[in-house]
C-alpha cells in the first residue's frame, strides 16, 4: 500500500495549475486521486476526466472538478496504474476492467504517467492474463478468434455472471504466458471483429514511477 501511495504522490507533484488531468482506475490510481484532491483543497486549479465510474465517483466525493468525457478534446496529463510494466515501458492494463476508457485517455494525453509498486515490473509481458474487452454479442465466436492467436481466453465472471464493463461489454482474460511482440499483438487483437479494445499499452507511457516499501521511488522515462 505504502509503495503505491508514494508513487502516486510523486506523479501528482507534476500536475500544474490549469491542466486537464486524466484520472486512472484501480488501487494505485486511488492514491493519486486522493493526493490530487488534497492539492485541489490547497488551491490547485485543474479539471479532471475519469476513466471509470468508480474513479469519477471518488473524485466527485473528494471535490475534484470534473468534466465529462464528451466535452474534452485534449488532456495534459493522465496518471494511471498498470498490471505489468516491462523495460520498454510497455504495459498490460485492465485488471479492473477499465481498459477501454483508459486507452482513450492515454491516446489523447500529452503525458501518460504510470504509477506502480515494484511487483508490477517484469522482463516480459504476459504472466498477467491480458484483459480484452469484447462485445457480448456472439462472444463465443470472438473468444475462438482470440484463442487462435495462441492464448487461453477466459470470460471474466462476477457473482457467476459475466463481468460487465462501464461500457456494457464483457472482458476475456487471455493467458498468453509470454508475449513476444506486444506491439503486433495489440494490433492483431483489435483486428478481430467483436474485440472492442485490449489491455496492451505499447509506446504509450511517457514515464513510469515505481514506488518501493522503503519510501523511495524510481522514475523511468521514455
Ligand atoms: O482496469 C484497471 C486498470 O488498468 C488498473 O490501472 C490496473 O488494473 C492496475 O490496478 P491496481 O493499481 O489496482 O493494481
UniProtKB/TrEMBL annotation:
Residues of the active site: 102
One Pfam family matching this protein: Rib_5-P_isom_A
Signal peptide extent: none
CC per GO annotation: cytosol
Keywords: Isomerase
Pathway: Carbohydrate degradation; pentose phosphate pathway; D-ribose 5-phosphate from D-ribulose 5-phosphate (non-oxidative stage): step 1/1
Biological process according to GO: D-ribose metabolic process; pentose-phosphate shunt, non-oxidative branch
EC numbers: 5.3.1.6
One of the record's GO molecular function terms: ribose-5-phosphate isomerase activity
Annotated residues for binding of substrate: 25-28, 80-83, 93-96, 120
Reactions that this protein is recorded to catalyse: aldehydo-D-ribose 5-phosphate = D-ribulose 5-phosphate
Presence of keyword Isomerase: yes
Function: Catalyzes the reversible conversion of ribose-5-phosphate to ribulose 5-phosphate.
NCBIfam families from the UniProt entry: PRK00702.1, rpiA
Similarity comment text for this entry: Belongs to the ribose 5-phosphate isomerase family.
Xref: HAMAP family: Rib_5P_isom_A
Subunit: Homodimer.
Protein name per Swiss-Prot or TrEMBL: Ribose-5-phosphate isomerase A
Gene (name only): rpiA
Amino acid at each position: 500500500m505504502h509503495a503505491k501511495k508514494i508513487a502516486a504522490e510523486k506523479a501528482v507533484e507534476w500536475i500544474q495549475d490549469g491542466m486537464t488531468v486524466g484520472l486512472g482506475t484501480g488501487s494505485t490510481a486511488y492514491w493519486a486521486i486522493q493526493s490530487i484532491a488534497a492539492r485541489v483543497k490547497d488551491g490547485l486549479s485543474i479539471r479532471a476526466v475519469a476513466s471509470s465510474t468508480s474513479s469519477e465517483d471518488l473524485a466527485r466525493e473528494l471535490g475534484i472538478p470534473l468534466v465529462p468525457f464528451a466535452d474534452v478534446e485534449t488532456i495534459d496529463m493522465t496518471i494511471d496504474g498498470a498490471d505489468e510494466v516491462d523495460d520498454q515501458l510497455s504495459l498490460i492494463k485492465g485488471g479492473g476492467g477499465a481498459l477501454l476508457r483508459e486507452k482513450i485517455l492515454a491516446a489523447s494525453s500529452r503525458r501518460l504517467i504510470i504509477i506502480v509498486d515494484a511487483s508490477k515490473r517484469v522482463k516480459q509481458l504476459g504472466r498477467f492474463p491480458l484483459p480484452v474487452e469484447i462485445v457480448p454479442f456472439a462472444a463465443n465466436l470472438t473468444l475462438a478468434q482470440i484463442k487462435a492467436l495462441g492464448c487461453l481466453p477466459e470470460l471474466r465472471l462476477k457473482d457467476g455472471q459475466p463481468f460487465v464493463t462501464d461500457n456494457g461489454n464483457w472482458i476475456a482474460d487471455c493467458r498468453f504466458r509470454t508475449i513476444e511482440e506486444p506491439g503486433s499483438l495489440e494490433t492483431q487483437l483489435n483486428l478481430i471483429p467483436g474485440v472492442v479494445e485490449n489491455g496492451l499499452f505499447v509506446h504509450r507511457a511517457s514515464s513510469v514511477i515505481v514506488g518501493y516499501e522503503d519510501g523511495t521511488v524510481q522514475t523511468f522515462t521514455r
